[in-house]
Amino acid sequence: MQIEINTIDNVRSEIIVEKGLGEKIETFFDNRKYFLITNTTLQKLYPNFIKKFDKNRVIAIEDGEEYKNFTTFEFIIKKLLEQKIERKDCIVALGGGVVGDLAGFCASSILRGVDLIQVPTTLLAMCDSSIGGKTGFNTEFGKNLVGSFYLAKKVLIDSTFLDTLSDYQYKCGLGEVLKYAFIEKTASNKTDLFNFLLDNTKEKIRDNIDKIIEISASIKAQVVNKDRLEGGLRKILNLGHTYGHAFETLSNYKNISHGEAVSLGIKCASKLSYNLNLIDNNYYQQIIFMLNKFELLNNEPKFDKIAIIELMKQDKKVVNNKINLLVPTAPCQVELFDNIDLPFLEASLP
Fold it and tell me: Which of 164, 193, 227 is the last residue of a domain?
């Protein structure tokens, strides 16, 4: 399946969802240099993929969210410059969100921009982070506070990479999938993904994972087409993230995964919405049921509420010192609010 992103400001990206793409990555190459950015784990898991690149142009970083930082960014940039990358060349990112975000930011900044191909290897990256051009890295002040919007020329999604994914990583990827289900009507005026996830077993959903990836990617593409730089509609993709990024930062990116943090953030946003009488109990319970169905609320670390709120105030979506929060307002619909009273915000926290 092919999905086209062609934004209103004429930026293009092609998303291809097809089994076996990784085995024929070289068919997407032309007569220029290709630099591979991956991590040390994937370097060992996919030697045949790695061999398709000049060994001097393979850059492997450490595996883990805690390595998504300026030090790793600097390491990659130095390696690229040592190998004399040129503006006509291309960077290929093989990995999940950490590799994809860092490689994307390197591609956007080195020589003021070289082409990028994303080859996501996790469910989270296939459904979300590899698509739409958000790049960057984390700092001690919060997650993804340094970055850019830079669309990959191609996103090659091959679900056979999921065969080496642990059950835990797979489950965490479903956190972003559920996000799409809860914003689906606002994004696309449909509820296909929500109904499929609600009505089917975990086993059937896994058997139809290509369909799930295609629907999620299509939803994101529709949103990015209308709002590449997050001036309006694209903000709906942040459901659960303002809370979730605070949880990740407080855990030092070690004790809670991105998918778990976002899922806990969705629970908080839904509780806030229910307390504000924006959604009824039936829909609130459906949201909690679905999060529990995929075991996404099993890890709920306790953080100091004041510390959470202070980090939320540093979120990049804050405007005039007001926290912008997306909350559900109806089945599969969300709305942005910037006037939440502190007692309601505190009551929504775990």
Answer: 164
Which residue, among 127, 122, 135, 161, has the nearest Cα to 25 in the 3D structure?
Answer: 161
Residue by residue, what is the 3-state secondary structure of 215-227? HHHHHHHHHHHHC
Gap between the Cα atoms of 76 and 36, Å rounded: 10
Q: Is residue 70 within 8 Å of residue 48, measured between CB atoms?
A: no
The pLDDT tens digits of the residues spanning 277-311 come to 999 999 999 999 999 999 999 988 889 999 999 99
Domains: count for the chain? 2
Predicted pLDDT at 18: 97
**What tokens were used for 310?**
């202070």
Q: How far apart are CA 159 and CA 14, in angstroms?
A: 17
**Do 247 and 293 reside in the same domain of the chain?**
yes
CATH number of residue 125's parent domain: 3.40.50.1970
164, 185, 220: which is the final residue of a domain?
164
| 157 and 177 belong to one structural domain | no
pTM score, whole prediction: 0.94
Contact yes or no for 106/90 (Cβ under 8 A): no
User: Which pLDDT score is estimated for 324?
Assistant: 86
**Which positions are catalytic?**
112, 134, 176, 220, 230, 234, 238, 241, 245, 258
Do 200 and 139 have their domain in common?
no
Residues 243, 146 share a domain:
no
The answer to whether 154 touches 304, Cβ cutoff 8 Å, is no
Supply the range of the domain harboring residue 238.
167-348
The per-residue pLDDT for 250 is 94
Per-residue pLDDT reduced to its tens digit, 168-208: 999 999 999 999 999 999 999 999 999 999 999 999 999 99
Same domain, 37 and 153: yes
Select from 1, 9, 152, 176 the least CA-distant residue to 90.
152
